[in-house]
Amino acid sequence: MTGAAIVFKTLEEQGVDTIFGYPGGAVLPIYDELKNHKKIKHFLVRHEQGAGHAAEGYARSSGKPGIVLVTSGPGATNVVTALTDAYMDSIPIICITGQVPTHLIGTDAFQECDTTGITRPCTKHNWLIKDVKDLSKIMHKAFEVATSGRPGPVLVDIPKDIQFSKTKYISYKNKKQLSIKKNSLFTQKDIETTVEYFRKSSKPVIYSGGGVVNSGPEASKLLRDLVRITGFPITSTLQGLGCYPGEDNYFIGMLGMHGTFEANNAMHDCDLLINIGARFDDRITGKIDEFSPKSKKIHIDVDPSSINKIVKVDLPIVGDVTNVLKSFIRTLKKKYPNFEKSNKEKISKWWRQIDVWRDKRSLNFINSTKIIKPQHAVKRLYELTKQEDVLITTEVGQHQMWVAQYYKFNKPNQLMTSGGLGTMGYGLPAAVGVQVANPGKLVIDIAGEASVLMTMQEMSTAVQHKLPIKIFILNNEYLGMVRQWQELLHEKNYSESHTQALPDFVKLAEAYGCVGIRAKTPDELDQKIKEMIKVDRPVIFDCVVDKEENCFPMILSGKPHNQMLLGKQNEEEILDEGKTLV
Amino acid sequence: MSISKSAYSVAGKSGKIEKHTIVVWVDNEAGVLARVVGLFSGRGYNIDSLVVAEVDKKNNLSRITIVTSGTPRVIEQIKLQLKKLIPVHKVADFPKDKTLFRELALLKVVSSEQKRKKAIKICKKYNSLILDKTNKSFVVEVTALRKEIDKLINFLQPLGLASISRTGVVAMSKGSDVFGENK
User: Fold this and answer.
1) Annotated catalytic residue within A481, A532, A554, A564
2) B107 domain-assigned
3) How far apart are CA A352 and CA A266, in angstroms?
4) Site from B5, B6, B9 to mutate, A interface, most A CB atoms within 10 angstroms
5) B166 vs chain A: nearest CA distance in angstroms?
6) Which residues in chain B have Cβ-Cβ distances shorter than 8 Å to A289?
7) How many angstroms separate the CA atoms of A80 and A74, rounded?
8) Which of A434, A523, A558, B98, CA to CA, is 20 to 30 A from B57?
9) Are residues B68 and B43 in the same domain?
10) 3-state SS, residue A100
11) Taking a C-beta distance cutoff of 8 angstroms, is the pair A75, A47 a contact?
12) φ and ψ at A296, to 5 degrees?
């Protein structure tokens, strides 16, 4: 069997049926072999970065690893952004790159680059295949590394001569349990200590993150059970949205830099902080020295190196979220069968305090009848799509935060967004991958006009493969988040944040062979959104919004959680304080 | 209160800097040293010295000894991040009081006979061995702690020390306990 055939054989054995890729000289033998494997469908992208993000969207929305196949040199370097993105957000990706023939490695051959060197810091691990005999073993190992523990991207670099040369295929029959199970390092004593913390706390808060999504759908169910049993308030990071229903009363909104007033104040004042699968990112914590100063902290994470990396915790629990939550609930039910009732009273004062914060209505904004406010657009989009089986991707910037604030997610794997790396241009190709994994479902990329132009070419991919993705652009002609920072912190010096020339997005849609829709006033917004949902083809929706709207509330740099900057509708109340903050 | 113009939070208090000797057992394969060193440079950790060599041919294992400095939190991170690397089998932090440390240096002295005689006399006070001798020069091997070698070098400097080659620290735990079984 040739190296190229071995690649497909391992993919088939691992249950792969989808590849995102782009052919080129050093990977042609593998592309030639594709015809012999009808079960595997290849999606041709327009740029290798698009293949990477599509694989991320596919992986994040399906729970399966995403597969990328690209050529050497520029093919490999173009995929680096997507690999780094997947590394930051713990998305399992297996990237297969072609490489120049073994005898030419190191000679600066045509389309040669040091792929394993370049991708070493942005993958969990990578391999350069030097002997075709190692290929099947390493391919299977690549799947194991990508999907176990804290998931992430891996890369296998295969020189062209290895793709041609022949050897025996080694099957992966003795399937070992993935080491995700082995990473459970916690003990029953840890669980019992936690339950005692639960019992003693009068101001608890659960802070959940992307680890709940990565742990699988059962983790979200268990999280909901835990909240119901304990009656604890729950907040979530950007990546964790959807694990707990966004409209539920126990949910106090996203936390962090653009989180709700109630979530951030609860984090600041709580006496028990239960971190479930989150990593104390700097967008969440703000100033470390003043982060949740009065609380005991429990941290559940599958990655031991996440523990005490940023915030010192009182009780680390290294393990998969599903396993840990199961143990919590079992122990809690056994030791305190009436926990639900007895605890409600204990923390009722805390809930009253949270309601006071809630009454601030930090997500309120001043709406307009003349111009579409971006927050209003996201709210309407939510109201008009919530009955559908809908999946959302976003780009990066203000619109991303408005989605997090105003679109209410009810399921895990429903929101695909670039959180860690903050990659503008992620959302459109990610939507391609999400639609591939979820045929028949409504997939919307809520975008900014600047972000979406970075990977706009993938509309052509969507058209070719008949993927009816919807690109909902909140068009304010600005790099909105950059402009907001410049307004607040750089004396309104809008240095290079305005895009003076933009394409006509409706005509652009037509040029790509998809449908273009534009909404300019609040009156026509609902009608146009309905029109977009009805179309069974890719759509670019140009939603012309207020150009200088800011994203509030926000925590400015170096501020603790209880000093948030609120929007204009709260201006009177915070006027003096607000001045010192800005 | 000063206002930061950054989109990032301001730095908090940092801990006291400590020196640690970290020993790592790795698969002896292509790129493994680059992974270890890349981890240090990529995350801004310090390497004061580094020694690497194969120690187990049968199991294809190399032992890397790294002397590093950082706050307790950074040291903890270094160990945890190293453990995450796929070719890393085991990571050990060797405590100062329970560990033997040695460095080796090769020193070449080129000078007059009188100066060389004086130099050899000094060398004899150290754990040293003359490896090569001509009528103009000699090469001495010395095995000792870092600061002792530093001292010897200082003595030899005015006596015609012409070239210095030295290793980083190798470390071995005292007593009968053995680190290094697989993780």
Assistant:
1) A481
2) yes
3) 12
4) B9
5) 29
6) 12-13
7) 10
8) B98
9) yes
10) coil
11) no
12) -80, 140
**B46 and B105, same structural domain?**
no
Alpha-carbon gap, residue A38 to A36, rounded angstroms? 6
**CB-side neighbour CA atoms (13 Å) of B43:** 20
DSSP string over A398-439: HHHHHHHHHSPP-STT-EE---SS--TT-HHHHHHHHHHHST
Please say if A424 is a catalytic residue.
Answer: no
| Mutation site for B-interface testing, chosen from A281, A556, A577, A581 by largest number of B Cβ within 10 Å | A556
Residue found under tokens 């409706």: A506
In this structure, how many other beta carbons lie within 10 angstroms of the beta carbon of residue A173? 6
Coil/strand/helix, residue A566: coil
B6 contact A CB<8A: yes
The domains found in chain A, sorted by start residue, are 3-164 (3.40.50.970), 188-358 (3.40.50.1220), 374-544 (3.40.50.970)
Ranges of chain A whose pLDDT falls below 50? 177-181, 572-582
Judged by DSSP in three states, A19 sits in strand
Q: Do B29 and B83 belong together in one domain?
A: yes
> Quick one: pLDDT at residue A261?
96
Tell me the C-alpha distance between A393 and A357, whole Å: 30
For residue B141, is it within any domain? yes
- Among B43, B77, B94, give the residue marking a domain's end: B94
The reply to whether B182 touches chain A by the CB within 8 Å rule is no
Query: What is the average pLDDT value for chain A, to the nearest integer?
Result: 94
Using CA coordinates, name the residue in chain B closest to A484: B7
Interface contacts A/B by beta carbons within 8 Å? 61
Q: Is residue B11 part of a domain?
A: no
Across the interface, do A304 and B83 touch by the CB < 8 Å criterion? yes
Which tokens belong to A111? 């389309």
Range of the domain at B57: 18-94
* Whether residue B44 is found in the same domain as residue B78: yes
Residue B151 C-alpha, separation from nearest chain A C-alpha, in angstroms = 39
Higher pLDDT, A480 or B5: A480
Is residue B80 domain-shared with residue B66, that is, in the same domain?
A: yes
Nearest to A287 among B5, B9, B34 (CB): B9
Same domain, B88 and B105: no
Report percent pLDDT > 90 for chain A.
90
**Does residue B177 lie within any of the structural domains?**
no
Nearest to B9 among A130, A303, A557 (CB): A557
Q: Which of B94, B110, B135 is the last residue of a domain?
A: B94
Indicate whether B25 and B40 sit together in one domain: yes
- Tell me whether residues B12 and A121 touch, CB distance under 8 A: no
- Report pLDDT digits (tens) over A348-385: 999 999 999 999 999 999 999 999 999 999 999 999 99
